[in-house]
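Researcher: Quick test of sequence recovery. Tokens follow.
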């Protein structure tokens, strides 16, 4: 009798690499989750290798057979091959990394990797909020940065350069009406910087949101104004691309109504009347969305 099969799924970030075993017969279940610091060892590459080894050991302990590996990672990535062709500030000196080659040094099984937001969007579309959506859907993630993906009738938009869905350079209006790249005004990093520069403080976003809820006018002006401007840019894209839905995820979106309400209002500020039926939705896969999505992407695309 053979062992039950699973995917070893990794979510690679600037500060941590999370992993989980996702059984093939329970695609939204995670087993033996763990994480290592991305920059704690000699290099991110070495940390990824250690995470793969930890995942294999966990699979053996659970009596599972790892039949594929899936990864979501920062940067512009040729997927599902897993070649990093460009890196931003999240992980420097990352371009040129061959994630497939690294994976096969540890275990020679089918492999798939893509940009972390594209992977999340793929999983969210097929297993979460998007599973009942039709047409063309824009997925936007607000976290340390801003990322995106477009999925049409279940198929993720691809491109020869790996950049399809990159959203950070879209320009939108901030709370003061100035034109700024959206990542600078709508990401967690951007919102934090806006407030700290205006208030001469050094708070993190949770502390700023606490002030928001206490009635701090500056916090409310920046959070609401920046995100409404961001929503207006999304609203223009709804019309340009004839989107049926916009799904917003990421750690910042997880804050809830103070984030989602102005984004939604901004979208409906700008959509044309024929596009007023667009749905604005939140992610639903939960805290393990990234690894669940990486496993789904690998099940469908690994080779």
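Model:
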């Amino acid at each position: 009798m053979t062992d039950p099969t699973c995917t070893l799924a990794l979510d690679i970030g600037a500060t941590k690499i999370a992993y989980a075993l996702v059984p093939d017969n329970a695609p939204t279940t995670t087993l033996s989750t763990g994480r290592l610091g991305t920059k704690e060892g000699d290099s991110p590459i070495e940390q990824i290798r250690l995470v793969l080894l930890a995942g294999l050991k966990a699979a053996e302990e659970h009596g599972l057979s790892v039949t594929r590996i899936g990864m979501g990672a920062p940067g512009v990535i040729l997927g599902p091959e897993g070649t990093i062709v460009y890196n931003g500030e999240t992980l420097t000196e990352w371009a040129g990394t061959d994630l497939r080659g690294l994976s096969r040094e540890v275990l020679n099984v089918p492999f798939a990797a893509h940009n972390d937001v594209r992977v999340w969007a793929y999983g969210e579309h097929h297993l979460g909020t998007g599973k009942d959506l039709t047409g063309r859907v824009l997925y936007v993630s607000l976290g340390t940065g801003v990322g995106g993906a477009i999925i049409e009738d279940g198929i993720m938009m691809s491109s020869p350069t790996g950049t399809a869905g990159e959203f950070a350079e879209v320009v939108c209006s901030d709370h003061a009406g100035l034109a700024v790249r959206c990542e600078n005004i709508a990401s967690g990093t951007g919102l934090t910087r806006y407030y700290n520069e205006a208030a001469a403080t050094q708070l993190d976003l949770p502390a700023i949101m606490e002030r928001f809820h206490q009635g701090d006018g500056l916090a409310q002006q920046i959070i609401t104004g920046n995100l409404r401007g961001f929503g207006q840019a999304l609203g223009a894209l709804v019309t340009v691309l004839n989107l049926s839905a916009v799904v917003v995820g990421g750690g910042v979106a997880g804050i809830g109504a103070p984030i989602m309400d102005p984004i939604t209002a901004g979208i409906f500020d700008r959509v044309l009347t024929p596009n007023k039926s667009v749905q604005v939705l939140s992610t639903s896969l939960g805290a393990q969305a990234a690894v669940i999505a990486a496993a789904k992407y690998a099940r469908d695309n690994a080779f």
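The chain has two domains: 5-121+287-301, 132-282.
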